[in-house]
Amino acid sequence: MAEAALLTTVLALVALAFWLTTDSDDDNGGGGLMQPSLVPVPVRRQG
């Protein structure tokens, strides 16, 4: 029974480590939100 608990714990830790390393949505892989990208907006100048 101890072997089953140990195996479950090890698999859970491996799955958690894998999830934390691959679940990043930004460029540097550090987690958190993505940096906003600048989009050019046309401006009409009156005058």
- Indicate the low-confidence ranges by residue numbers: none
Distance between the termini: 83 Å
Q: What structural class do helix, strand and pairing data support?
A: mainly alpha
Q: How many beta-strand runs?
A: 0
Mean pLDDT: 80
* Range of helix content: 40-55%
Helices and strands, in order, run as H
Amount of beta strand: under 5%
Main beta-sheet strand count, sense and barrel state: none
The best one-word shape is rod-shaped
Question: Number of helical runs?
Answer: 1
Radius of gyration: 23 Å
Topology (SSEs and partners):
Layout: H1 2-22
How would you sum up this structure, described in words?
With 47 residues, this protein is mainly alpha-helical. Helix content is 45%, strand content 0%. It has one helix and no strands. The protein has one helix at 2-22. It is rod-shaped.
Task: Give the tags.
47 residues; mainly alpha; 1 helix
